[in-house]
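Hello again, I could really use a second opinion on something today. I've been staring at a protein lately and its backbone has me curious. You're getting the sequence in one-letter code plus the fold written as tokens. I'd be grateful if you could look everything over and explain what you see. No rush at all, and the record is pasted right below:
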Amino acid sequence: MSAALLKVSDLAKAFDGVRAVDGVTFSVAEGELVALIGPNGAGKSTCFNLVNGQLVPDAGSIELAGASIGGLPPQIIARRGVGRTFQVAATFASMTVRQNVVLALLAHAGRHGAMFAPPPSAFETRADTLLERVGCLELADTHCATLAYGNAKRVELALALAGEPRLLLMDEPTAGMAQNSRGKLMRLASTLAKRDRIAVLFTEHDMDVVFGFADRVIVLDRGRIIAQGAPEAIRADPRVQAVYLGEEA
């Protein structure tokens, strides 16, 4: 495994005196898929929001490739190489798939003023390349409002890749998807991560997805890490079974 790209050390965040994240330390390497799991309220979303700048840590550090990013604005963190997908796929429904990706590419290039003008052909070519990577090139001229949900999630992945992320945060990537589509999306994410050396940190409630695709699993409970390691070890950990997996273990 490569050296750690993301390093989180003693991270803490409290709301009204309640520690949502309490002394959390972990890392994610290039090309590694790490699942961050735990019951509702465990602190997963807060961790994500701290890493991508939606929240400012109360204590601790967040480093990307050795440089501190903790407390930086989200747009700066994105430019440093952190991308994110969300639980609900977010696209401009009235625009085509290609137009959505071109907008993401223009934003990443700082060409905000060009968003309302015909895009340079190079951006459309790059958009098609990204769509081909996620298996959606044949949908390039389709309006996003008409996409099946599984395809919308793949398009959202292309939007995230438009920012050339070194670290990709995936917030419940298979939520709302049919069972047979979940594995397809995660196989795609895994292939892209390994091939392009992208570090992936994802949250997920589907344990088949977690144990089927994560290289490592981190388990949170009440803001603290109670276990982390290989999926097989996490599945067998009695602490994890007690607070989270239950019968699913």
The chain has two domains: 4-87+166-248, 92-146.
